[in-house]
């Protein structure tokens, strides 16, 4: 019976064959303990000298890290391992012997591991992070599908900038200049006017010269956009969505969270509603905490966000930022035109901003005024104005950064470990 490690619990007491790699090994005289991995999981296989032919025992004892094999044996319960089962081996067929695998169980520097990302992905830690990433994506589709959203795929090659022009990747589109998408939002607004509630999930490109543990040059963003929804209603969607994702990861990634030694008691508290503080109050809070560089009108950086997050054990919304430091499309607060109806959601434990969102300007004249102020001209922007001309409605949306969310839930410090092949300021390979 050929199976995988993840399916092993179904075969207790039976003999099975698994295609696997050797991730680690130890042996003591008459017994060899093989740590197997097969992509679906990790499991120990025990090879006892007395139970197998001599050549099989020698093969097991001398097997090198990352050698590939088909391995056969009986599945028994093993209460000591977190996985709960192990294999008592009866046969091994070597597929390929791996010679001098560069990543050994000893410590390696980050640059070395990044250079070997194509192999580093095989480690138990990276396997766990990728599984958690996958669960967040799965839960995202479930949440938005169950709540009546239609998945929409905005273009990657665009003629317009959604978030300002400084961070654009330029490319040639035949005779025209084009950019790699920095957000699908403008297109999602058009789609929301056609389909009501929509969401996208796609790659996002920002030519940011930031070298921090939260910035990638290429990252993945989940962007919902909702017609007939105001800012407060959008915040409710955000807290429901984030709570759902966190609880899904807790339920479906127990082994992975355990491998990463994630403190899950902190994640268990993540249930809607989330606290909200205004930008004004955040400025006061930071001044009280001794930040001399903060005054009304400045944008917050990572240390500010971390300091604010410290006061809460759930993600916190910082709402109503000054209009002048936010994007052109955000709707001014009807009671105070110097701030806009927007919010950033800051994750707890210092993982930073995971969501940026806002209610959008729906008034044609005000949008025309913004176009003038921001010098938005030409066919790349003309169509977006028409959304305010033909049946304009209140609408809101937001973008959640997948990698920062993976970092938070996995408890990994740097976003470079949260995407299979990170694109960083000085890294385009592997
Ligand atoms: O706040 P941002 O720039 O929002 C937008 O792009 C809106 N157009 C979204 C919308 O309303 N539809 O980015 C949203 C999120 C951030 O909160 C952060 O989680 C993530 O995207 N993000 C990054 N993640 C990794 N590396 C970067 N360089 C990131 N820049 C933003």
UniProtKB/TrEMBL annotation:
GO terms for biological process: asparaginyl-tRNA aminoacylation. Gene3D superfamilies: Bira Bifunctional Protein, Domain 2, Nucleic acid-binding proteins. InterPro entries: Aa-tRNA-synt_II, aa-tRNA-synth_II, aa-tRNA-synth_II/BPL/LPL, Asn-tRNA-ligase, Asp/Asn-tRNA-synth_IIb, NA-bd_OB-fold, NA-bd_OB_tRNA. Its EC number is 6.1.1.22. Residues 130-430 form the Aminoacyl-transfer RNA synthetases class-II family profile domain. It is an enzyme of class 6 (ligase). It is found in: Cytoplasm. GO terms for molecular function: asparagine-tRNA ligase activity; ATP binding; catalytic activity, acting on a protein; nucleic acid binding; transferase activity. The keyword DNA-binding does not apply. Keywords: Aminoacyl-tRNA synthetase, ATP-binding, Cytoplasm, Ligase, Nucleotide-binding, Protein biosynthesis. Pfam families: tRNA-synt_2 (PF00152), tRNA_anti-codon (PF01336). PROSITE patterns: AA_TRNA_LIGASE_II. Transmembrane segments: none annotated. It catalyses: tRNA(Asn) + L-asparagine + ATP = L-asparaginyl-tRNA(Asn) + AMP + diphosphate + H(+). HAMAP family: Asn_tRNA_synth. Homodimer. Belongs to the class-II aminoacyl-tRNA synthetase family. This is Asparagine--tRNA ligase. The gene is asnS.
């Amino acid at each position: 019976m050929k199976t995988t490690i993840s399916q092993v619990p179904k075969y207790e007491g039976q003999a099975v064959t698994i295609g696997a790699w050797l991730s680690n090994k130890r042996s003591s005289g008459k017994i060899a303990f093989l740590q197997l991995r097969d992509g679906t999981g990790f499991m120990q296989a025990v090879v006892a000298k007395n139970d197998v032919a001599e050549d099989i025992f020698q093969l097991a004892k001398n097997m090198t890290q990352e050698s590939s094999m088909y391995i056969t044996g009986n599945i028994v319960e093993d209460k000591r391992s977190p996985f709960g089962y192990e294999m008592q081996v009866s046969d091994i067929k070597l597929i390929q012997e791996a010679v001098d695998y560069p990543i050994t169980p000893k410590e390696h520097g980050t640059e070395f591991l990044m250079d070997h990302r194509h192999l580093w992905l095989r480690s138990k830690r990276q396997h766990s992070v990728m599984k958690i990433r996958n669960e967040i994506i799965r839960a995202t589709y479930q949440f938005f599908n169950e709540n009546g959203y239609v998945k929409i795929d905005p273009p990657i090659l665009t003629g317009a900038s959604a978030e300002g022009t400084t961070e654009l990747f330029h490319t040639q589109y035949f005779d025209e200049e084009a950019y790699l998408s920095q957000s699908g939002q403008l297109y999602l607004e058009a789609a929301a006017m056609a389909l009501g509630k929509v969401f996208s999930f796609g790659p996002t490109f920002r030519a940011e010269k930031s070298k921090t543990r939260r910035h990638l040059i290429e990252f993945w963003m989940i962007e919902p956009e909702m017609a007939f929804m105001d800012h407060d209603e959008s915040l409710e969607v955000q807290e429901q969505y984030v709570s759902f994702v966190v609880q899904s990861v807790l339920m479906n990634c127990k082994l992975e969270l355990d491998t990463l030694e994630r403190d899950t008691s902190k994640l268990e508290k993540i249930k809607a509603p989330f606290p909200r503080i205004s930008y004004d109050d955040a400025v006061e809070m930071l001044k009280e905490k001794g930040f001399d560089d903060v005054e009304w009108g400045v944008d917050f950086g990572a240390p500010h966000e971390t300091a604010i997050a410290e006061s809460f054990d759930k993600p916190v919304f910082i709402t109503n930022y000054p209009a002048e430091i936010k994007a052109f499309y955000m709707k001014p607060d009807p009671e105070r035109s110097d701030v806009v109806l927007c919010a950033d959601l800051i994750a707890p434990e210092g993982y930073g901003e995971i969501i940026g969102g806002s209610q959008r300007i729906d008034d044609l004249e005000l949008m025309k005024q913004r176009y003038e102020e921001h010098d938005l001209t030409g066919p790349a922007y003309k169509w977006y104005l028409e959304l305010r001309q033909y049946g304009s409605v209140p609408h809101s949306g937001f973008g959640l950064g997948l990698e920062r969310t993976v970092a938070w839930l996995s408890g990994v410090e740097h976003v470079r470990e949260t995407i299979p092949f990170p694109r960083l300021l000085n890294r385009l390979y592997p």
